[in-house]
Amino acid sequence: MQSSFAGKKIVVGVTGSIAAFKVAGWVSALTQEGAEISVVMTESACRFVTPLTFAALSGRSVLTDMFAAEEGRSISHIQLGQEADLVLVAPATANTIARMAYGLADDLLTTTVLAADAPVLVAPAMNSRMLMNPATQRNIGMLKELGHGIIEPTSGMMACKTEGPGRLPEWEDVREQLLATLSIQDLQGEKILITAGPTREALDPARFLSNRSSGKMGYALARMARRRGAEVVLISGPSSLSPPHGVELINVQTAYEMCQAVMGACRGTSVIIKAAAVSDFRPEAKFPQKVKKDDAEFVLKLEQTIDILKELGERKEEHGYLLVGFAAESCNLHAAGEEKLKKKNLDLIAINDISGEHTGFEVDTNKVILFDRHGFSDLPLTSKEETADLILDRVIKLLIEKRMH
Known about the structure:
35% helix; 8-stranded mixed beta sheet; alpha/beta; Rossmann fold
């Protein structure tokens, strides 16, 4: 399945910081995902990592000199700026940030930034005291005013053996910020509440009832909604997945805890997507101590948990949100979709076929059927991220319809 970076033209501007070695890994990752990377290095950057390294990783010649003769092409900074989909300056030293803030253009990198029509992302990396110096903070503020995005540095041990803010973030977080910058922000201004993962209903301190949900579908929905500009709250049952960058995560364990969290967060929300696999039952009695094998009864009495989706459907008109449900089914998919759409007062429901080898729980692909008041549509078998994007496309259409009436 094709990466979202495939075919994207990205200029990576590398400046004189020891963190340049980390950006070499970013260039390698972007190239492997099909991006067309043009690396521009300052003179100082070449003292930390050789241009040959970046050339080998990007598969292209590295540009260092604004006045170097380049047969068969126009001036580098003009062409780079006009052809790029994105300009990433990383690592960005205090010196380069200051020059960019004041519009100086005394090398290939700064002239490329000035000539760029594309979005510019800047990733500061420097000693903590340099970063927190009022002059540097003022210059970063000026870059924001110019419309440049800032990839906020993280804290940790620095190369200079001091600890504090000033480190480049890890690639996965940076990757999400790059993809968000490249994505259409068609969910800007929307607040979306998403639930994900299983719940666990305790039997005793060692045992619980649960299901096979990994949370992958819900997390993919949260990631793609945030990437498209939404403010996202993710309420998740137990999961081994890392929370998507920029998403507010609320961890819960039981169906009751998930219900409490959802009802507490639904006010002011424009869309609620219930992708969690909430336990339908819980043990009627919870034992305070671990039940010994010899003392165990062979009949386990269960009681129903609260139907969170139905509760949300009953409150939908009062709060004005768009309500999207998920249902895991193994047979009679169309009948289940039509019934649950009406019974639970939903705007949209995704019926998840869990009978297939490549759909449902614990896999990276999915195939769902979407039902709304207009009818149904079968989505293709694809990655859960692409499935999430297709669901969000439908959500946007329903939001537009809702606001027109």
